[in-house]
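Let's do one together. I've listed all components of the complex below, 524 residues spread over two lines.
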Amino acid sequence: MSDLADATATELLDLFGAGAASPVDAVEAVLARIERVEPAVQAVATLVADDARAAARASERRWHNGEARPLEGVPYGLKDVVATAGVRTSGGSRRFADHVPDASAAVARRLEQAGGVLVAKLNTYELALGTPDGVPYTRNPWDVERTPGGSSSGSAAAVAARELPIAIGTDTGGSIRIPASFCGVTGLKPTYGAVPRTGVFPLSWTLDHVGPLATAALDAALVMDAIAGPDDGDPTSSARPWRPAVAGARADPAGLRVGLPRDWFFDVCDPQVAAATERAVELLAENGASVVEVSVPAARLAEERGMWDAIVYAECGSLHEDAFPAHAELYGADFRHVLLTAPFVSALEYLAALRGRVHIQRDLEAAFASADVLVTPCAVAAAPLAADMVMEVGDRRYPWREVAGRTTAIFNLAGAPALSLPIGLDEGGLPMGMQVVAPPHADGLCLQVGAWYQRLTTHHRAAPMT
Amino acid sequence: MTDSVEQYSDDERRRVVEQTELRREKLRLLREVPHPFGTVAVEPATAERWIERGGRSE
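Okay, and this is what the predicted structure of the assembly comes out as:
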């Protein structure tokens, strides 16, 4: 490994264990990478270099003393909606520009307790929703004229540029998976409640999820083993104990049944993305998986009947009642529009949308009767130009907000785990992604399929700025 | 408190009206779809319980 910044978390741990590299070396390598690429990428909101160096030295001692923990010495970053005690947590928002929390989020505490080394807080769309307004706009490392997607823009871009091997994001309608897809990295939206949201800025409490972005699915499993599990601070966190995912992710799945929902998910999809997804499924089939056609009709219902909008607008509006409209000037244009519209979602509309989630869950339950996982395209096309945010889907052009969440938001409504995986580059040299979906609490299966696919391919190793 | 319509631009107000009308029409259509539980009232927690059961119906 010529540059430790290019190593996955798993590779770093192997090198540390063999004494071939140290956490101090790894932190210095990622800090050097950050210094080199950050002027172009702008993924970092707050760099904590001194603290990271001190933590790396402590990790080095633990390795030396035989006291290494599961992520001992691995550098990581946190989306800036995740609270960090004593470190600014702005949420990408003018409202919280100088906010320094007293306590860390559960996910931050757990990563620290697992031995991870926090290096940077990472840029985000405003409070995980609004297009950045008055804060740096993160760029896609594959083409800095393009967006990395959002809202976990800094998390995906930082991993893609190999500024950090792992990062934490949040996902309310696709905010981990779409940036992962645009940036060619791996991202998991876990089962609803699997990862506690304690200390994370909320956007929409019935749809918010916290999860990992990483180069490889095996690394995402490592992170999930550290951050998942019940937490008293989050009453919506699942009471189910987390089943460790790393061991399973190292083994090939036997007799896997892959469900391919050709309707809806392929209806508005760039032909290159559709073909790459089909090729990925064929590869799984060539290696022992069986493929069945399934249908999820309620996907159309969810998108075309405004369920996601009604829930997010109502819950987001409720969360910001204390400051909006009294302090409307503290919000960017995009977020302000949501808050302006929120009061016009009636209680009946909100309840109809919540009730509608059951339609999706019933369809998924039927699909999972014949398939262990579903595979769909993730982002329906490659990343759009930041200047116009227009997605080119075959010969048609769409504003990105119209189609970006088309394949992803349904799984927030259902609460099922969904993993975005790189599946190669399009003709323009931009990453494409597919999505692997499993029943609730089968996050480990998503990760196992992802890691298996990545043992069969090298798409996840492609990196633009190394 | 600065909550008055004057503080919002014509464009902002137009977008709010358009989006609200569009969403209401979509949700009206949603309410016309027969619900899986028929006439049985379903509270929001039903969806969370399905998740907790690992995606299986009771």
